[in-house]
Amino acid sequence: MAETAIERDGEATAAATQDREDDGIKRRRLGFSFWAPLTWIAFLFLCALTAGLWPLPEPDAMHFLNQAALPGDSGDAEIGGADVPWTFWLGGDNMGRDIFTRLMFGARVSLLVGLVSPLIGLAIGGTLGMLAGYYRGHFETAVVAFADIIVAFPGLVFLIAITFYLGPTMTTVTFALGLLTIPYFARVARASTLTFAEREFVLAARAMGASDLRILAREIFPNVIIAMLVYGLLVTAALIVIEGVLSFLGLSVGPPTVSWGGMINEGRDYLDEAPHISLIPAFVMFLTVLSFNLLGDTLRGLADPRESRL
Q1: Average pLDDT over residues 178-187
Q2: Could you give the 3-state DSSP secondary structure of residue 75?
Q3: Which residues make beta-bridge pairs with 88?
């Protein structure tokens, strides 16, 4: 009896120690590299959603007396249809427009394109990848060949063709970028499905007579979607950069819609005299891309038990 009690106490102590170690891992994983980028992304979402509610200058209101105003300079700005004294917190651009205001409105374009485009790829590519990994055979071969063809085709040429024929609108750019992400999500979904398709719980569901649709929806999808969502954060970071490049080249949304890439492009002729016109939006884009990358890496470590043990 005494030995049994000691064994129980030892097992309880070991379990408690393991729980503390697991909690310690989680605390380490959800440290600064998680909360700092999450705070920045949440702040951007707040700015994008409430940009039109703040008492700020109009994003397209030009004041040529404040051209290339330095951060902290004072001048006049149009707020509510009237010119009022204003401090340009982040400076003014080459036309005297407030950079801080334009960054807030430009966040709408970057976040919308960066988040909606991966959803298109996740929905279509994820479905194709799951079906390919589950059914295998000729369908898998066709999906893999389709993904290889899309990846091999020059993406910039595709984007130029789409924007040329349909116009450089936000809808066009979002849809075109979403199509380009389909093969990547298909590959991730297929690889994850191949891992889970032969697991015990799937074999048990099949032995109990569950249909393929039920197995895919109830057994495989909840496991596959985690990997795709984490991967989607990394894709979002890449698409924000790509949208900025397209705006810089004049292939994304144009005036009067504000975009970070367009702001960088507008200041490139003034890099010698007023570098802040381009560098400030470039730095904001850098922080945003870095935040999505850090967030994705942290969540990937939490989702993968092999990395959690490192």
Answers
A1: 93
A2: strand
A3: 73
Query: Which of 185, 183, 171, 176 is CA-nearest to residue 157?
Result: 176
Number of Cβ atoms within 10 Å of the Cβ of 64: 9
| 258 sits in which H/E element | none
Residue 44: pLDDT band by 50, 70, 90 thresholds? very high
pLDDT digits (tens, 9 = 90+) for 195-213: 888 888 888 888 888 888 8
Res. 142 pLDDT band, cuts 50 70 90:
very high
288 is written with which tokens? 């945003």
**8 Å CB contact between 224 and 126:** yes
CA 114 to CA 240: how far, in whole Å?
Answer: 5
What is the pLDDT, as a whole number, of residue 26?
Answer: 47
Q: How confident is the model at residue 278 (pLDDT cuts 50, 70, 90)?
A: very high
Residue 307 clears pLDDT 50, i.e. is over it: no
For 77-143, give the secondary structure using H, E and C. EEECCEEEEEEECCCECCCCCEHHHHHHHHHHHHHHHHHHHHHHHHHHHHHHHHHHHHHCHHHHHHH
- Output Rg (C-alpha) for the chain, integer angstroms: 25
pTM exceeds 0.90: no
pLDDT, residue 29, reads 53
Is it true that the peptide bond before 256 is cis, omega within 30 degrees of 0? yes
163, 239, 281, 302 from 261: Cα distances, Å: 16, 12, 8, 33
Q: Residue 77 pairs with which residues in a beta bridge?
A: 84
Contact status, residue 62 vs residue 105, Cβ threshold 8 Å: no
Torsion of CA 271, 285, 247, 120, to 10 degrees: 170
Report the SS3 class of residue 198. coil
> Cα–Cα distance between 205 and 215 in angstroms, integer?
7
Report residue 58 as tokens: 């109009």
* Most distant pair of Cα atoms in the chain: their distance: 90
